[in-house]
Write a structure and sequence with these properties.
alpha+beta, Immunoglobulin-like, four-stranded mixed β-sheet, four-stranded antiparallel β-sheet, 16% strand, globular, disordered N terminus
């Protein structure tokens, strides 16, 4: 009898959720089980696949307080805390993720649909996630596919990314960098061009895994068709994204330089992969898959490299007009694309865009990317907290170096290129060099500044002043700056010479500065500050 009563108590929240869920809305009941009871959990929700694909701010990003344990809520352990959350119909379907910000545990993302009711237990002691309720199998399928992919990727040697680490110790940074040097030296060149082509022609081993077949078959009739198709498509897209990314980033360039006689074979192999993904995409709908958008962009990058065309010129590879717009918008919103290719194709694409949200963003971006733009006058902070503005340097050529603690590329750029530039121009009255940190807090910025690893001491040091979310600074948002290192060169009138510098070497930067100085001196009515 006691056993029967306990079961009723555990199921009460689910039945209550079903009774109170609004039509086509969704209800989540969660439990966090840990040695040290938690106070809250962070919930992030994206109801736009494009925004999630581009790592943009979620539609919902909230810290949810956790409730003390109670029999009514079904949490009978003092180590448990629970929460419940109602998601309105206008925010569904969506991808939802959970994060324990104190311990670093993160879960998801999971796909949640209209009318879903789900109970989730995050067991941090056993390090597992348990689902219950009507939407249980949709969430279990998502978790199963995610774990399968993680296990397969774990078997592949890879670079270590530590740019998101909170104030990593120097010892840890050195260890990461040592690993990455070994990776570049020993892992990337390990395959000959012919071996790489052979690898391309093999059927992707992950789709031959018994576990994948079991997941696919088990959930086919247990999960709503639209959810099933979306989850399978997103999983497949993650696999092919990594393949297209690697082939575009390493394989094609290597074959072109060291074995050009294999280019035709490479193109045929790439076409074989494209046919595979087209067949799979026609079977499993990609409309709400963020990884499909990312995958298609890198597929287009690979095809563009093979045909020596631009991504815009091969964008017909995506037959769906809406998805094509999403892929191209994601592509053109990347700073490095505009820096490398200019705005010509972006201008052509703008004429075609039908999605009003994409069009508005691209028009703003097109204006911000045009050489000769007057730089917006926003304030930054120096060490003393004094406001520093770009207009404070009017009359001088200004090189703006944007960096971030933990960024290995920033350290390398500073060591081999920026330090030499600063040494050359530190006594030049015509040139000022500013180092702007993207760090999330002032203390981290000051520690890294003092170390000299990311910017020379002789440069002018500033910070956004935006605690916790530096990229929300209006200057960075205007120019879509979310990563480092980045460079901007501004003339003596406060106008941008271009969105950024493609050649970030000492020689390339020096050439750009000297060309600008020469251009200014050849204009009789222009004088520089002394």
């Amino acid at each position: 009898m006691k056993h029967f009563t306990l079961i009723i108590l555990l199921l009460t929240p689910l039945s209550k959720a079903l009774a109170q869920s609004p039509e086509n809305g969704a209800w989540i009941f969660g439990e966090v089980y840990s040695i040290q009871p938690k106070e809250n959990i962070r919930i992030s929700l994206w109801n736009d696949a494009f925004e999630m694909a581009n790592s943009e701010h979620p539609a919902l990003d909230s810290i949810i307080p956790l409730n003390p344990p109670s029999l009514y809520a079904g949490t009978i352990s003092q180590r448990s805390r629970d929460f419940n959350m109602e998601i309105p119909p206008n925010m569904l379907p969506a991808w939802i993720a959970f994060e324990d910000t104190l311990s670093g545990f993160s879960y998801g993302p999971y796909l949640i649909s209209p009318s879903d009711s789900i109970k989730i237990k995050f067991d941090q002691i056993k390090q597992q996630v348990i689902f219950a309720g009507p939407a249980r199998q949709s969430f279990e399928m998502s978790l199963g596919l995610s774990q399968l992919l993680e296990r397969k990727l774990f078997e592949i040697p890879s670079m270590l990314d530590f740019s998101a680490q909170p104030a990593p110790r120097q010892e840890l940074l050195d260890r990461f960098e040592a690993n990455n040097k070994r990776f570049r030296r020993k892992v990337i060149p390990i395959l000959t061009p012919r071996e790489r082509l052979k690898k391309m022609n093999q059927t992707l081993p992950i789709f031959k895994e018994d576990e994948f077949a079991l997941i696919e078959e088990f959930y086919r009739k247990r999960v709503p068709e639209t959810v099933y198709n979306t989850l399978i498509n997103d999983f497949i897209s993650q696999v092919y994204f990594r393949i297209f990314y690697g082939f575009h980033g390493y394989y094609f360039r290597d074959i072109k330089e060291s074995a050009p006689e294999l280019l035709d074979t490479f193109a045929q192999s790439f076409l074989h992969l494209e046919n595979q993904i087209d067949s799979l995409a026609s079977k499993y709908l990609p409309l709400f898959s963020p990884n499909y958008i990312k995958m298609q962009e890198y597929r287009m990058l690979g095809r563009a490299a093979i045909e020596d065309k631009s991504v815009y010129e091969v964008s017909h590879l995506e037959a769906d007009p809406g998805l094509r717009e999403a892929v191209l918008t994601a592509h053109f919103l990347k700073r490095n694309v505009i820096i490398r290719e200019g705005v010509s194709d972006l201008g052509k694409f703008l004429v075609e865009v039908q999605n009003p949200i994409f069009k508005e963003r691209l028009e703003t971006w097109y204006t911000a990317s045009t050489p000769g733009l007057q730089v917006p006058d926003y304030a930054f902070k120096d060490e003393e907290g004094t406001n520093i503005r770009i207009t404070d340097f009017e009359g001088k050529i200004l090189l703006l170096n944007i960096w971030l603690t933990g960024c290995s590329s920033c350290r390398s750029f500073n060591e081999y290129h920026l330090t030499r530039i600063v040494q050359e121009y530190q006594n030049d009255p015509e040139v000022s060099i500013i180092s702007l940190s993207l760090d999330q807090n002032r203390e981290r910025w000051l520690r890294s500044k003092a170390s000299g690893h990311y910017s020379p001491e002789e440069s002018i040091h500033i910070w956004t002043g935006y605690e916790g979310n530096s990229t929300e600074h209006p200057y960075l948002k205007y120019f879509n700056i979310t990563s480092a290192p980045q460079l901007q060169l501004i003339d003596q009138d406060g106008k941008l010479t271009g969105l950024g510098l493609d050649d970030k070497t000492y020689e390339g930067i020096r050439s750009e500065i000297e060309n600008l100085k020469s251009h200014i001196k050849n204009q009789p009515n222009k004088t520089l500050s002394k």
